[in-house]
Amino acid sequence: MWIKELNNQSKKIVVAIPLTKGTEKTRIKKRSCFNEYGIPVSTKSVCFSLDCYVEWQIGYDVIVSDEDKLKLTTVKNLLFMGANGKEKTIYELSEYLYYFYKWGVLSKDKLLDVKSFLHSLSDDDFIDNPNNFAIERSHPVNKRVLGIDFFYTQVKYPILVHKFGHYDVLTEIKVTERQYAIGVQPMLYFCFPVTELKASDPLIGRVAKTKETADFEINSDNISIFLEILRIFGILSRNHNKDIITIIDKIMS
Fold first, then answer.
1. pLDDT tens readout for residues 243-253
2. Which of 38, 43, 53, 84 has the CA that lies 20 to 30 A from 24?
3. Residue 204 domain-assigned?
4. Overall pTM > 0.85
């Protein structure tokens, strides 16, 4: 995702959301209620409908050595050392909060409130603590499929859903295995209906155009959602917690 418009006068940020390619960052999915498992939609062949929504794996930083990703942020010089030992700058979530703080919409007290809350947490509090939300595996049983013997088991992944007052705007946390290390990693997704998007032509009832994007507007009415997402990021793990506290200090500096 990238910032399409920064408007200091009207205090809004317009973010371009891709509609035609399901990247690792955003996908258009479909479900009839929030507790269903969302199904990806091929928007170039299936029309947008009222049960379509955007699943956005929103980020809060970018590693400065990654030149391609660094191009996506408008704030390249607010540098900090991440909990993983890599030099970073703010991006997406923290980038939006940075501007609303500079514009006077987001108060210092609200940022300090989040920082104080995050400082109060112990290692036992974080979502990646296996004592809190563990991946469950059923006992294997014999199962024969087309003459071939298998051991059959089921794996259950914890999913946490938080609503932001508005029924259809929420964040999902999915606890999965780490790809390159032992343990689990909570993945955070920001989800909202496609009706929150603005396009040159109304989306509902049509397919997406080639390489089409739609606009998602961040303003004084919904910036509190992004501050709450920042708070939630800080409870995912100790590393997330350290990063978010550092980012809050950078925003206020």
1. 999 999 999 98
2. 84
3. yes
4. yes
Q: How far is CA 41 from CA 21, 22, 61, 63, 194, in A?
A: 10, 9, 28, 31, 12
Number of domains in the chain: 1
Inside any domain, residue 144: no
In a domain, 135, yes or no: no
